[in-house]
Design a protein that fits this description.
By secondary structure, this protein is α+β, with helices and mostly antiparallel strands. The protein has four helices and ten strands; from the N terminus they run αβββαβββαββββα. It has one domain. The longest helix has 20 residues. The protein is globular. The N terminus is likely disordered.
Length: 192
């Protein structure tokens, strides 16, 4: 299960970065842990535009470590005991900015937050539709829609959309508290 989750999350990260890095046309393929595939085709507002590749950066925090602007260290600690420092990677692209925040090791015990802030109007509806396609249980109060993508004893993923931002929050640990993940997602949504 965790091996499939790890692969699925890696594919999601690569797919989201590829959408962010695309030129005039991009295809984002999201593979869930159950190997379901969703494809969304996104075109930028200006066809034929040669856009530069996304630039990845790591954001250091004062006093060491990184700072995730979407989820505080104390909120991450409520999701995972001994969460430790967060690693943040930001990829700026022509149609979106992708921020990935990781605490611990997502394959065993960890928290992974991915936030994609869309900056181009044209692909938004297709990307949003693909983002919500794999929701298995809707959760009210998560912005413009969202819910559980994965909900098991050792992995919980909540995905939602608010405005032009897509959020995926995954917690992997033995006996994950799904209610705590939902509370953290609602806190993120309220801050957007």
């Amino acid at each position: 299960m965790r091996q499939y989750l790890s692969r699925g999350l890696l594919i999601v990260s690569v797919a989201l970065v590829s959408v962010a890095c695309s030129g005039s046309t991009a295809t984002a393929t999201t593979t869930t842990t159950t190997t379901a595939t969703t494809t969304a085709t996104a075109t930028t507002a200006t066809a034929g535009n040669s856009n530069p590749a996304a630039t990845a950066t790591v954001t250091p925090a004062v006093g060491g470590g990184d700072t995730c602007k979407f989820l505080s260290a104390s909120d991450a600690a409520t999701l995972l005991a001994n969460a430790g420092l967060v690693k943040v990677v930001v990829a700026d692209g022509p149609v979106s900015k992708l921020t990935t925040c990781t605490w611990g090791k997502i394959t065993t015990d960890g928290v992974l937050l991915m936030a994609q802030e869309l900056t181009a109007a044209a692909p938004a509806s297709e990307i949003k539709a693909a983002w919500l396609k794999d929701i298995v249980e809707t959760i009210p109060g998560l912005g413009d829609g969202g819910g559980f993508q994965t909900k098991s004893a050792d992995t919980v993923t909540v995905q939602f959309i608010k405005g032009s931002t897509l959020i995926s929050l995954t917690v992997t640990a033995t006996g994950v508290n799904a209610d705590a993940v939902v509370a953290a997602a609602k806190t993120i949504a309220a801050g957007l």
